[in-house]
Amino acid sequence: EAFNRHLGFSAIFLQWIQNVVWYPTVLGFAAASIAYMIGVPALAQNGLYVGLFSIAMYWCATLVTLRGTSAISGITSKGFLIGTVLPGVVVIVMAVIWMAGGNEIALKEIPAGVSQIVNVDAAQHVHPRLFPHITGMSDIAFLAGILLLFAGVEVHAVHAPELAKPQTQFPRAMFLAALISFGLFTLGALAVAITPYDQINLQSGLFTTFQIAFERYHVGWLSNVMGLLVAFGALAGVMSWISGPSRGLLWTARDGALPCFLQKTNKNGVQLNILIIQGCIVTLLSSLYIVMDDVSVAFFLLSALTVGLYLIMYMMMYAAGIRLRYTQPKLIRSYRVPGGNTGMWLIGGVGFLAVLFSFIVTFFPPSQLPVGSPATYTWLVVTGTAVFLAIPFIISFAMDKRNARRTPEA
Length: 410
Known about the structure:
12 helices; two-stranded antiparallel sheet; single chain
């Protein structure tokens, strides 16, 4: 409504494709979980294992999804509680017990060479920094990955009309959600920080923390249990998302914005061809684990590509919010940003600029990871972003031409 159908379709496509790119990251996390569950943690850094596991598990999840929503509803609901909430609470509680027991906190013993987060005084004493030392964009490259944790919060806006007083209750709800999220992420990060710095990596840092804490209290077998629970939660999360976003593409295809062959469904009403295409893309992206030297680098590369695509949609969203204030000024809205157009420009403008800055950060390789050639890393992110961004425009304009040729005949 704010701009045109081409940008509207692109926004829908980006929400779908970022989800597709996200699957290899969460499946890589599940692979690390299984490695710890079977007692072979070294597998978490084996690219061949992580890549093949991700591919195999995704196609298994796809086969289950093709049986219909009834086949996965029970798995997804239990997976969130058992595989996400429970392990998160356990790691925080274990960290509290660890500190209360007077055990060594690795956060205080960070190597002097990690200048971003420690400071060395004149007496050569190493002290953790309260704020990180930033020398360039590469030092804050993880900002993009952190934003991915908050991605999707915008969907709650659809519930604003259900509130008795949305003008006051909705912002309170959003601030409360932000505080809870920030608190959980911060406590979770601090919990992992009891682990020695050189043992933390993007995929298995959580499980290393479990292993150290549980072995200290002679219940090391709980690490295997946590690995199983987290793997179950990750796979349940994949199943819950496989069908949903792709369902939106199915309706888009039925609306004439996509080729007819994408409208095909199986006897259970599940979008067959879309899921097959989705699986092929996931297979290709998961192969990065196999061909890249470092699993953590491949993991972060996929995360950066995921969040970059999502941030493009967010920029569209902020811009649309501002434009709709001018094109539909008298529309009755359940919630309206206060301050008139000035308030909308302030909130929407700050949001747009913050997202734009974060989007730029995604193209810089993190200084904390051995990415090899920074130019190659940047080239991969730029190419991936450009390809996935170009696809919806190519499809949209091609379908317009196709429909235009058919109209006179009709």
